TrEMBL record:
It comes from Mesorhizobium shonense. Keywords: Lyase, Metal-binding, Zinc. Residues 125-150 are annotated as: Disordered. Coiled coil: none annotated. This is CENP-V/GFA domain-containing protein. The keyword Nuclease does not apply. Pfam families: GFA. It comes from the Bacteria. InterPro entries: CENP-V/GFA, Mss4-like_sf. Residues 7-104 form the CENP-V/GFA domain. The keyword Zinc applies. Signal peptide: none annotated.
Length: 150
């Protein structure tokens, strides 16, 4: 896939529009309590891009660090200093091409009728830095959107 691909998304009423350009840094699923509650589903699928790859228009509100449309209530991308987390369901074109999750978070909360994704890394809680010189086994912090989950 080309790095100049642009994906667009919006809230349900169309009052907030956004787009991301290029390939995401990572794609994952989360089964934590917060993602279940804010999505109304058994898990949340998301992709993370560098903040500079993100643009948006429209008025948003936030609660607990998560953005939403004040008119229709749709969840919107969570924008951090370095990264933006986009809910895959908020993208306009489905199915999405090239956005296959490579990891799952909070797998202890995964419903028993859901199976782990083949080839996807499994994390009991939040993602830890990948195996590298910087990997100290601690959760990744200070890199953008942060989950606060039970």
């Amino acid at each position: 896939m080309s790095n100049d691909i642009t994906r667009s998304g919006s809230c349900l009423c169309g009052g907030v529009q956004f787009q991301v350009t290029g390939e995401p840094l990572r794609v994952g699923l989360c089964h934590c309590k917060d993602c279940r509650k804010t999505s109304g589903s058994a898990y949340q699928a998301f992709a993370v891009w560098p903040s500079q790859a993100f643009e948006s228009t429209g008025i948003t509100n936030s609660y607990g660090g998560r953005s939403f449309c004040p008119t229709c209530g749709s969840r919107l991308p969570t924008v951090g200093e370095e990264e933006v987390e986009v809910m895959i369901g908020g993208l306009d074109v489905a199915p999405t091409e090239g956005l296959e999750p490579s990891y799952e978070l909070w797998i202890g909360r995964r419903e028993h009728w859901l199976h782990s994704l083949p080839e996807a890394r499994q994390f009991e809680h939040d993602r830890v830095v990948d195996d590298s010189a910087a990997d100290d086994g601690e959760p990744e912090a200070g890199r953008g959107p942060h989950r606060k989950s039970a």
